[in-house]
Amino acid sequence: MGRAVWQGLLAGAAGVGVMTLGEKAEQRFTGRPDSYVPARTLERLTALPEARGRRSSSLNWVMHAGQGALLGVLRSVMADAGLRGPWSSAKFAVVRLTSDQILENATGTGAPPQTWPRGELAVDLVHKAVYAFTTGFVADVLAARSGPGPGQRHASRRPGRQHHAGPPARTKA
User: Fold this and answer.
1) How far apart are CA 45 and CA 97, in angstroms?
2) Dist. CA 71–CA 147, nearest whole Å
3) Cα–Cα distance between 126 and 84 in angstroms, integer?
C-alpha cells in the first residue's frame, strides 16, 4: 500500500501539472478568469475566514494541487489492482469530477453542473479529463513496473469474457 501512496501522489501531481498548463493556455485564449471556488471550498472545509486576494490564491493552489495529488492515490490503487488503460482513466475522470462536486456542493461554494452554462461545463470536463488521463498514464506506467495486477492475472487465465470463470486460487506470498 505504501508503494501505491507515493506512486499515486506522484501521478496525481503530474496530472495536476498538465491540467494546470492546459488551463492557463485555455485562459489566455478565451480570457476566462481564474476560479476561486477551490479556495472558498477549502476555507469552508477548514473553517477559515473567507479571504480575498493573495491568501485566496495560495489556498486555491493548495486545494487544486492537494486534491489532485490525493486523488492520484486512488488511481494508483486502481492501477495496482490491474485496472489500467484508457477505460480505467475514463472511470477515474468521473471520480475526479464527483469529488469536486461533493466538496463544492456540500460547502455551498458550487452548484450542480447541470445548472452551469454549457461552455463553462465543457471547459471543466475537458480539463478534468486531461487530469484523469495524465494521472492514469503515470499511475499505469509506475504500476506496470511490478507486473500485472491481480485483475489482469485473472483475466489472462481465460481471455475474453467467460461465463463461470471463477477467481484463480490464492497464491502464497
Assistant:
1) 18
2) 23
3) 20
pTM of the predicted model as reported, rounded to 2 decimal places: 0.87
Q: What digits encode the pLDDT tens for the residues 73-123?
A: 999 999 998 899 999 999 999 999 999 999 999 999 999 999 999 999 999
Written in H, E and C, the secondary structure of the chain is CHHHHHHHHHHHHHHHHHHHHHHHHHHHHHCCCCCCHHHHHHHHHHCCCCCCCHHHHHHHHHHHHHHHHHHHHHHHHHHHHCCCCHHHHHHHHHHHHHHHHHHHHHHCCCCCHHHCCHHHHHHHHHHHHHHHHHHHHHHHHHHHCCCCCHHHHHHHHCCCCCCCCCCCCCCCC
> How far apart are the C-alpha atoms of 75 and 88, rounded to whole Å?
8
Within 10 angstroms of residue 166's Cβ, the number of other Cβ atoms is 9
